[in-house]
Amino acid sequence: MLTVLGFAMIATFLVLIMLKKMSPIAALVLIPALFCVAVGQGAQLGDYVIDGVSKLAPTAAMLMFAIVYFGVMIDVGLFDPIVRAILRFCKADPVRVVVGTAVLAAIVSLDGDGSTTFMITVSAMYPLYKRLGMSLVVLTGVAATANGVMNTLPWGGPTARAATALKLDAGDIFVPMIPALAVGLVFVIALAYVLGRRERKRIGYLTLDQALATETDGETVLVGAGGGADEATGRGAGRPAKRAGGAAGGSGPAAPGGSGAPDQDPAVPGFQGLDPHRATLRPRLYWFNAALTVALLTAMILELLPIPVLFLLGAALALTVNYPRPAEQKERLAAHAENVLNVAGMVFAAAVFTGVLTGTGMVKHMADWLVGAIPDAMGPHMALVTGLLSLPLTYFMSNDGFYFGVLPVLAEAGAAHGVSPLEIARASLVGQALHMSSPLVPAVYVLVGMAKVEFGDHTRFTVKWAALTSLVVLAAAILFGIV
After folding, report:
1. I need a surface site. Which of 141, 146, 233, 410 has the fewest CB within 10 A?
2. Conformation bin of residue 157: beta by default, left when phi > 0, alpha when psi is -120 to 50
3. Share of the chain above pLDDT 70, in %
4. pTM listed for this prediction
5. Cα of 426 vs its chain's centroid, Å
């Protein structure tokens, strides 16, 4: 009975959030509460929740202060020079543009928020893609895949969810995975190089002057993609036409952001990812903020202090130094309050789900059933099974559904065959490169919307490359003995 009710609870949770009938936070609280009563253990609900909250409080604190810290770093302009340097590096070479897209998306992904990453990346790179007539699905595909690899950072969501669901330390899950994730990121950059070569072959190599040919009336026109370029994908004839006076010209639309050179900070109208004149900038404190961020990440990797404590101290120090006036600090906290509340609320709501699933014994009964269904020969390889399952499961369901509903069952099944929950948790992260292009991820709609790409086009182009990236991460994790 508990097995059936356990799977019914998970299925109900997944259906309701996938159909958007309930928010994840509401579903995480109400569905398990109802099933707890249904199994006759309603009187123990309070104990299950309190026990779960006490174990998840460090994870919630880490996420809260990590969001505040990296939000402040974006506010003060820590990433601005990086964006400008990448734009200068890209020039008008399609290979450099695509590689620059991957690098920029990976760097900005340090803040752990996919929407912010995509807003900044597209705002910076979209004008170059339009000016050169490059395929915009390359922009969205590379950005989403790079962000997916970086999304495994402890404050990015999946690692915290895995730690929450299995009651493990996020640092114990993430730090050993760094070599495999680094291989995945290198693969994304190599993939960007290959895709850039393909784009260069299609549209040719243009100099900066050719890409920014200016008409007599001062209008910047597209060169090298004249006539027939598809608005959604950037595909077109790609044949530059000669104009009077020897200048190359074309009939494409002017790039958003005006006629400035690519090493400026162009922005898509309505989406200023890096406004160079925003009042929150602190250029005089740039090196302090850079040193603080490097020190914070180094301390995290070396495990000098628990990750929640590091980010708590880092956020407090960053706010105090950059915005010494209490009113300014209050403004910055208010600016990031929505993200903090959503993430922290999710973690504490998850205490109800995991608490009921574990406390009632449902997860144990489901695991026993699953163990019986898995051939004995596959039992010792549950980490590999988890890694492979993470690709389709995190694509067709939300991270909440996978990590809170499925992962505990896989971990229990693995434990029966002597596989550590840590190995299961690490293996569960490999599907994130594919997950970031899932239709269940709100941030992907920010990405395709800003880049003016149809979601279907993005999916057809990206899924195969993202799945391959996930398999590369899994292979590296197995090779290095991480899982």
Report:
1. 233
2. left
3. 83
4. 0.64
5. 17
